[in-house]
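We treat protein structure as text, and this decision shapes the records that our systems exchange. The remainder of this section carries one protein's record, kept here as part of the documentation:
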Amino acid sequence: MTLGEAGADRMKAYSPKEYWSGLAEGAPAGDSSGFAPVLHPDAPPWFNRLIDRLQFRAIRRALAMGRVQPGARVLDVGCGTGRWIRRYLEWGFHPTGVDVTPSMLRVARERGTTAPLIAGEAYRLPFADAAFDLVSDVTVIQHIQSSLQRPALEETARVLKPGGCLILMELIRGKGAHIFPRPADDWIRQTRDCGVKLIGWFGQEYLLLDRLFVWSAQTARGGNGSSRTLDRVPEQRALRPSPTARRVYWTVRRMTASLSAWTDPVTAGVCPAKFATHGVFVFRK
C-alpha cells in the first residue's frame, strides 16, 4: 500500500459522529465548562480557557460586525457541549443548538444548557427554511469531510432568514486526520455561492510565538530526516514520549501561548489575516 492509499484509508475511517462521541464520553468529570471535548481534549484546562477567551472575543466582534440584535433567533450548528448556547442566552438571544452527537448534547444538558438541543447533521439540518436570524458555526464544518462541506454551507444559508447573519469561524491552515481546512478565499467563495453576501472577515488565533514553539518541539521529536511537516495549528496534539516530557512541553507552552495571546491584537494589526490559523467570516443573506 502506498502512502497515498494509506492516507485515503484513514480519511475513509474517520467518522465525525464516532470521533466526537468518544470525546464526549471521555470528558473529564471536573470540566464544568465543557471545553475539553470541543476544544483540545489532550491539553491542560488553562490552554482551553485561553483558546476560549480568544474565540469569545472573536465572536463578540463578529456579532457587532453583523449588527445582531438581542431577541434574535439563533441556531448554533455543532453546538457540542453548549458553551455558545449558554452565552447566547446571557446576551439576550433565543438560541437553539444542533449537533450530530447525542452524547455531546447530554454533556451540554449536564452543564446547565436549558435552550432546545436537537440531534442532527450539519449537511441535513432538521429545520424549516428561513427559520433563524443568526446561524453560527464555530470550528464545525472544518471537521466535516470536504465533499460534505458545501452541502453543510448550503444548509446554513437555507435556514437563515433574508437579512439574517451567518458567522463562520473555520481553519484556514493546518492539517489533521479529522481537520479539513480551506484557504480563506475558498471558504468565502464556497459560502457566497450558497446565496449570501460577505460583510467582512478577519484572522483569529495568530499565536505566532506559540506556533513556532510547537513546530520546534515537533521538529526535535522527529529528528534528522523526519518527514513531518510544519504543523501551523497550535491546538493539534503534542507528541508525548513520557509524562516528564509532557510536563516540560506544557510548562514552556504556557509561557509561549500566554505571551502570544497577549500580543495577538498587535499581531492582527500588522500581519495579514491569512497569517492566522482561523478565519472569522460574517455573511448576510
The domain at 3-206+270-284 is CATH 3.40.50.150 (Rossmann fold). The radius of gyration is 19 Å. Residues 1-11, 223-239 have pLDDT under 50 and may be disordered. The chain has two domains: 3-206+270-284, 208-268.
